[in-house]
């Protein structure tokens, strides 16, 4: 009779341990995803502001170059050419550029910090 009680007690403690462990895993996972999500939103806002800055700066630079050459379109073609060359370079070196970002995401997901 006493053995049955100890087995039931052990079984209850095991169930409690498994439930607690599951809750801990859920909390750690949600903490990591909320951290990654908040960083993503922050970087997205910074990226949007940077793109707006670059667009406005490009327009201003295009107008300035056009006024130097006396042609309404030459400045826009020159700036577009710079962007085309930049895009080609990014395309050529995309693996070297994306690797640090991928490593940062993996490091954040696998970190043990709470």
What's the shape?
rod-shaped
- Radius of gyration equals 28 Å
Low-confidence spans: none
Instruction: Give the count of structural domains.
Output: 1
Account of the 3D structure:
The structure is a single chain. With about 110 residues, the chain is mostly helical. About 90% of the residues lie in helices and about 0% in strands. The model has no long low-confidence stretch (mean pLDDT about 90).
Present the secondary structure layout.
Elements: H1 2-69, H2 74-92, H3 94-110
A few lines on this structure:
This protein is 91% helix and 0% strand. With 114 residues, the protein is an all-alpha fold.
Give the key terms:
114 residues; mainly alpha
